[in-house]
Design brief:
Two copies of one chain form a homodimer. Chain A contains five helices and five strands. Chain A is of the alpha+beta class. The first copy, chain A, has two domains: about 5-90, Winged helix-like DNA-binding domain superfamily/Winged helix DNA-binding domain (Arc Repressor Mutant, subunit A, Orthogonal Bundle); about 95-135, 2-Layer Sandwich (Dna Ligase, domain 1). In chain A, strands 4-3-5 form a three-stranded mixed β-sheet. Chain A has a two-stranded antiparallel sheet with strand order 1-2. The interface between A and B is medium-sized, with 33 and 33 residues. Strand 5 (about 125-140) of chain A pairs antiparallel with strand 5 (about 125-140) of chain B, so a sheet runs across the interface. The structure holds a DNA duplex (25 and 25 nucleotides).
DNA sequence: GTGAATGCAAATTCTTTGCACGAGC
DNA sequence: GCTCGTGCAAAGAATTTGCATTCAC
């Protein structure tokens, strides 16, 4: 179980307003409530937070996810489909396998792929600072 | 050297209008003219095609790249930065290493990573139909 | 000739911003 | 009181779409 976003904010000196607390809480509870597959977009997040505090505006949600992203608290993903989707950054890095039929998202870690990526960057004289690996697949009938 | 887009259209039964021919030609010549790093967005493509035929509208460019993408002729990439960027699909699959300082794009192939990706999908009971691997790096001073 | 493609401008969608008001120190 | 955050609505940017006209076959 990962550290609450609220605590991370305090650790990083991000000021916590009431609105930010609600957004932090909703994102902290995301996977516990909706499963590992949960990567809400801003609209979905807005729906969830306004159930707790109906006065929060969508602009604040946009501003807050951007703030959290810059603070290294949330990760932004541009999966196929146009809108940006967010998840809390966890200690352990992982990549995504996306079911193109159902939209389900499976998170996985593959140390060997990680190592090879560094090797590739190295080969071209680069230091790897970030990467994105998304697999798109269909369930095999078995 | 890869097959011209125009020929691919004929092979796939995609109707060729004058506008589509111009767009096909510009995308076919993309890497030869602008280097391996070339992955134009729609705006850039629009600039290039209107130099050949100034009457082509941006809507046609959008419609055409979507059409070509659906026909498996162009690949669409959502690199960081908001706008979609395109390149011709070549026989040999490759991934991208992006220089986050200069924006340069290096294309690379790593068979081992490819294999591991299939293995991961397999492990979760999926058949891999597509994937996206992007490395973001900074040049090492050496 | 007929259905599909185009150009234009308006509409959509996602996201950002200007500004006046409000909250916290 | 001052600074910064928020809400609202308007602005922006990228992309799509409705419709009348034109084009490809």
């Amino acid at each position: 179980m990962s550290q609450s976003i609220e605590k991370k904010c305090i650790a990083k000196g991000v000021k916590l307003t009431e609105q930010r607390k609600v957004i932090a809480r909703v994102m902290s509870e995301s996977k516990e409530t909706y499963g590992e597959s949960d990567h809400p977009d801003v609209d979905e997040l807005y729906n969830r937070v306004t159930k707790i505090d109906p006065k929060i505006s969508i602009a604040t949600v946009y501003r807050t996810v951007k703030l959290f992203e810059e603070a290294g608290i949330l990760a932004k993903h541009d999966f196929k489909g146009g809108k940006a989707r967010y998840e809390q950054i966890s200690e352990s890095h992982h990549d995504h396998l996306i079911d193109i039929k159902s939209g389900d998202i499976i998170e996985f870690v593959d140390e060997e792929i990680e190592k090879l990526q560094k090797k590739v960057a190295d080969k071209y004289g680069y230091e790897l600072v970030d990467h994105k690996l998304e697999l798109y697949g269909v369930k095999k009938k078995s």
